[in-house]
Specification:
The chain is an all-alpha fold. The chain has one domain. Helix 3 runs antiparallel to helix 4 and helix 4 runs antiparallel to helix 5. The longest helix has about 35 residues. The protein starts with a helix and ends with a helix. The relative contact order is 0.18.
Length: about 220
């Protein structure tokens, strides 16, 4: 029953954000204008991605402590789901960049950091596929996953704040609070973040079950 509740809540919140994100009136914002609606989709995808990767980071540490292969499978499932949200976040970000900055891709530290982060995590899957012994694979993957999470924080959370960036809240640019992220936007944005994290948790649980079935 409890597992069903969070799935229903996730679906309801995502549908709510998708529908009202398009229908609600928004404040008059210079430059960003109507494209601010992508806040509900693009930014919430990255929040979900970070949540999934944080979960995989925690399970990697847990595996190194007890070396339970079920824990390794949870780590892999969360990382796979995180990558899904990373690609969705990157895609929605490129659309936003096209209509706000005039180009699909710019030499922006946060964009470049996101691309590097995705490449680092792609190497995680290449590493897993290249090792046949389950315990050795799990052990090496756990260590690499911890490294990948730290690099993600550096490339998308720290470095963009230390240099000029087009993204709000980085490189001296004002954050969304300064762009008047009023209650109309908050009432959609926060539910969207929670909804996508819950959906991500659901997807990861499905991937975990599939992995267990494939082993047995």
């Amino acid at each position: 029953m409890q597992q069903t509740v969070y799935k229903v809540i996730g679906v309801v919140l995502v549908l709510y954000s998708l529908i009202f994100g398009l229908l609600t009136s928004i404040p008059d914002l210079p430059i960003i204008e109507e494209s601010i609606r992508n806040l509900f989709y693009h930014v919430s995808m990255w929040f979900a991605m970070v949540a999934m990767m944080a979960g995989s980071f925690a399970y990697s540490i847990a595996f190194l402590r007890k070396e339970n292969l079920y824990t390794d499978r949870r780590t892999a499932a969360l990382t796979e789901t995180g990558m899904l949200f990373a690609f969705l976040g990157l895609f929605t970000g490129m659309i936003w960049a096209r209509f706000t900055w005039g180009a699909w891709w710019t030499n922006d530290p946060k964009l470049n950091g996101s691309a590097i982060t995705i490449l680092i995590y792609l190497a995680y899957f290449i590493l897993r596929n290249g090792i046949e012994d389950e315990r050795k694979k799990a052990r090496i993957s756990a260590v690499y996953n911890i490294f990948a999470f730290v690099m993600m924080i550096v490339f998308i959370g720290i470095l963009p704040r230390m240099t000029d960036s087009l993204h709000p809240g980085n490189g001296g640019n004002p954050g969304f609070n300064s762009y008047d992220l009023d209650n109309r936007l908050r009432l959609i944005f926060y539910p969207a973040v929670i909804g996508w994290i819950l959906i991500g948790t659901w997807i990861a649980s499905l991937r975990y079950r599939i992995k267990n079935l494939s082993i047995t």
